[in-house]
């Protein structure tokens, strides 16, 4: 099982670059792969995208490089085009792609699946400050962005009722370009492991943050940008510093729990090495 960071594919050409790079790496083949889908799928590509991020429909084709693909929509950019949330979910379902991070019928439900004989449930969550500043006023669809204490209680209840299930918390937190995770978030991550969560994975900072093995469980506070090329978003004005084109993927052996860190370098925001 492999966890990757923030991904935004601006067009079909970039989608092919990413797909070819993933195939070349070879680490995703046959693996359950979980990625933060930074922005909904838009077709056609929006002409005005200032302060907005989206994904081309080629995001569905990434599945061909993996064994199973799961996207988290638990992030602030899901609200950039709220009218496209439901069409995005339909596209993902039609292509056999799982998703998490949204309220389902106003209930915080995880995405549940089986892999290699184990049962899993993945909760996606977005820090509530982001959905307060990027408000969805045109759609009833909602990102799971409740207060952290409420989230802790939701996960704790799920773990108690499903002790046989490996629970994953896929978090969208911290400020942009913040290299150090907040102490409060480190406490939350460890508290989640303490109640039985299998792994906690963080995103959003657009740069790598630390990882640790806590009580035998992986906590990765920020994976960085998996794929967000320069010069396309925010009407072509969004460009990241060189450090933001470095990220890492976390691979966890489902049988042994052994973890591998795959460091990735995207020098131009394009190809993975």
Describe it for me?
Strand 7, helix 5 and strand 8 form a beta-alpha-beta unit. The mean pLDDT is 95. The longest helix has 14 residues. Strands 1, 2, 3, 4, 11, 12 and 13 form a 7-stranded mixed sheet that branches. The chain has a 6-stranded mixed sheet with strand order 5-6-7-8-10-9. By secondary structure, it is an alpha/beta fold. The protein is built from 5 helices and 13 strands.
Q: Could you give the topology of this structure?
A:
Layout lengths: L1 E6 L4 H14 L6 E6 L30 E5 L12 H10 L3 E3 L10 E5 L2 E9 L1 H6 L14 H14 L4 E7 L10 H12 L4 E5 L7 E4 L2 E4 L4 E3 L18 E7 L6 E7 L8
Parallel strand pairs: 1-2, 1-11, 2-3, 3-4, 6-7, 7-8, 8-10
Antiparallel strand pairs: 1-12, 5-6, 9-10, 12-13
In short:
With 273 residues, this protein is of the alpha/beta class. The chain has helices at 12-25, 85-94, 128-133, 148-161, 183-194; strands at residues 2-7, 32-37, 68-72, 98-100, 111-115, 118-126, 166-172, 199-203, 211-214, 217-220, 225-227, 246-252, 259-265.
């Amino acid at each position: 099982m492999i966890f990757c960071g923030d991904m935004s594919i601006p067009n079909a050409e970039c989608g092919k670059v990413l797909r070819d790079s993933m195939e070349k790496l070879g680490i995703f083949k046959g693996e359950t792969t979980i990625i933060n889908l930074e922005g909904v799928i838009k077709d056609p590509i929006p002409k005005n995208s200032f302060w907005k991020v989206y994904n081309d429909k080629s995001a569905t084709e990434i599945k061909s490089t993996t064994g199973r693909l799961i996207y988290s929509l638990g992030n602030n950019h899901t609200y950039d085009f709220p009218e496209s949330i439901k069409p995005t979910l339909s596209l993902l379902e039609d292509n056999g792609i799982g998703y998490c991070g949204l309220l389902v019928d106003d209930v915080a439900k995880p995405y549940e699946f089986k892999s290699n004989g184990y049962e899993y449930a993945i909760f996606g969550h977005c820090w509530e400050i982001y959905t307060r500043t990027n408000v969805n006023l045109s759609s009833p669809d909602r990102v799971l962005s409740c207060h952290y204490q409420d989230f802790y209680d939701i996960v704790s209840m799920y773990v108690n009722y499903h002790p046989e299930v490996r629970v994953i918390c896929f978090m969208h937190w911290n400020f942009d370009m913040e290299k150090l995770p907040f102490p409060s978030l480190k406490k939350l991550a460890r508290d989640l492991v303490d109640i039985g969560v299998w792994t906690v994975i963080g995103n959003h900072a657009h740069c790598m943050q630390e990882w640790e093995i806590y009580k035998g469980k992986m906590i990765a506070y920020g994976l960085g940008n998996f794929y967000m090329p320069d010069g396309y978003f925010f009407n072509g004005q969004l460009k990241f510093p060189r450090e933001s084109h470095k990220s890492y993927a976390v691979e966890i052996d489902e049988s042994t729990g052994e973890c591998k860190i795959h460091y990735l370098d995207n020098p131009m925001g394009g190809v993975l090495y």
